[in-house]
Design goal:
The protein has 458 residues and is an alpha/beta fold. The chain has 13 helices and 20 strands. Bound molecules: zinc ion.
Length: 458
């Protein structure tokens, strides 16, 4: 017969085991299918389910996200931007936002609405290549608009729609996709809109803003995602300082003022949160320091024959050599690195830095990454399709500080006149959007709640 002490120890052990099993079952239950996802993707180092967020009674709060392409973190210091200064002084902001790699538009816009790195949402560039199935997606029309390019994760607007909150999405990548029979209540596909006068651009966006407010106030929409490209476009082609750049800033500033004015006119100050974000900043060449461009053709004279596909984004490039040409392509390009020409050459599955978070089947077999100040082009004839870029982005955001973007929020959910001393990452924004809308089914993501929670009214 065991002694009473032994019985006590056995009971304690049994209770401990049962408790431990309960924790495992509980975790598996809440993580659902995402738990598998987390195990297979090391980069999901921070994950949280929205049900764990401090959800407040915000089902009545609405959200308008205005995404200003190419707005660098340091532009907020320009005191001539009256609308922006007013917006910031009554809102909450962070010092800077670190884009995901590569620091280009589509990957970052998709991280904003999913909280995921490129390896988890699959949007690895502005152009997407599925080498295995010989399919491509390009950001400019005409384009392959199959859902497959954007449906590896669930963007914010679909989660909102699933929770019966209506969304209107202007010009976001993949705004048209449907998943499980759910689609944005209203969307407009991207079509470039920059070869117009400033007046025409302003009028066009004021109309979109007015339309958005009508939807928010009269048609019971809860979410608006709106994208503007004028600053990015001018930064690439004209650069700064220039009067064209100043006028693109002034134009954007007038739209920020218009947003505030329209919110007041529609009496939505207690209902609507407006968040101004950007996808990346810009770095500029100067006459004394022009970008140093390397052409693939200098190292691979027959690159079109040697490669199945290639996707060059200035500071980075994905290459898919033909099977029998891999060694030759790799050896030729390696001289870029060996000779210290400001370009690193990586091989998929071998040495691509984990911090880039691009471990995905659609990543090129070879990745080229240029240092700040250096850039890549296929050949001189194709250089920027005839338009030299004097401003650019896409560099490793850890090496080029000018890649950092903005996050400025204004509305009932946010502190007023608050500047967080912390910077955040692009993947952190999603948790704020979910919280403001009071969504309860946002997915596990790479964002950190701790880095954004101080912006909010407790
Ligand atoms: Zn962009």
């Amino acid at each position: 017969m065991p002694s009473s002490n032994e019985i006590r120890i056995i009971v304690c052990i049994v209770i401990g085991i049962v408790f431990f099993l309960c924790i495992i079952i509980y975790n598996n239950h809440w993580n659902g299918e995402d738990s598998l996802f987390i195990r297979t993707k090391d980069s999901l180092d921070q994950h949280r389910r929205s049900r764990h967020l401090p959800v407040v009674d915000q089902r009545k709060q609405k959200l308008l996200v205005f995404m200003v392409d190419g707005f660098s973190h340091d532009y907020v210091n320009d005191q001539n931007l009256v609308g922006l200064q007013k917006f910031m002084s009554s809102g909450s902001r962070v010092k800077h936002v670190k884009p995901i790699f590569p620091s280009i538009t589509y990957p970052n816009m998709f991280s904003q609405v999913t909280g995921l790195y490129a390896e988890n949402h699959g949007v690895l560039g502005n152009s997407l290549i599925d080498n295995k199935n010989n399919k491509t997606f390009d950001d400019g029309p005409p384009s392959n608009t199959e859902d497959r390019w954007f449906n590896e994760s669930t963007p914010l607007w679909l989660t909102a729609e699933k929770e019966e909150l209506k969304s209107v999405v202007y010009f976001w990548p993949g705004c048209y996709i449907s998943k499980d029979g759910v689609q944005a209540s209203n969307y407009t596909r991207y079509k470039s809109f920059y070869n117009v006068s400033d007046e025409e651009y302003k009028l066009h966006y004021e109309t979109l803003i007015k339309e958005s407010f009508n939807k928010l106030s009269k048609e019971n929409y809860s979410l608006v995602l709106l994208y503007s490209e004028i600053i990015d476009h001018v930064s690439h082609l004209v650069g700064k300082p220039s009067k064209e750049f100043d006028s693109s800033m002034k134009l954007t500033d007038s739209l920020i003022e218009y947003l505030i004015k329209t919110r007041d006119e529609f009496k939505m100050t207690l209902d609507l949160n407006i968040i101004l974000v950007s996808d990346h900043g810009h770095a500029f060449e100067t006459p004394k320091n022009p970008f140093k461009i390397h052409y693939l053709s200098d190292y691979l004279p027959n690159y079109r024959e040697d490669l199945e596909h290639f996707s060059v984004n200035g500071p980075s490039a994905y290459l898919w050599p033909k099977k029998d040409k891999f060694s030759k392509v790799y050896a030729n390009l390696s001289s870029l690195e060996i000779e210290g020409k400001g370009v690193k050459v990586y091989v998929k599955g071998m040495d691509i830095p984990a911090k880039y978070h691009i471990n995905h089947e659609r990543t090129g077999d070879i990745l080229l990454v240029a240092d700040p100040g250096y850039s890549l082009e296929p050949d001189i004839a194709m250089e920027f399709k005839g338009e030299r870029k004097v401003g650019n982005h896409g560099w490793d955001p850890d090496k080029e500080d000018d890649m950092q973007g903005i996050f400025i929020a204004n509305g009932p959910a946010f502190k007023k006149g608050y500047v967080s001393r912390k910077g955040i990452r692009m993947v952190d924004e999603y948790n704020v959007f979910c919280h403001v809308l009071g969504l309860t089914s946002c997915h596990a993501n790479n964002g950190s709640w701790d880095s954004v929670s101080d912006l909010l009214v407790k």
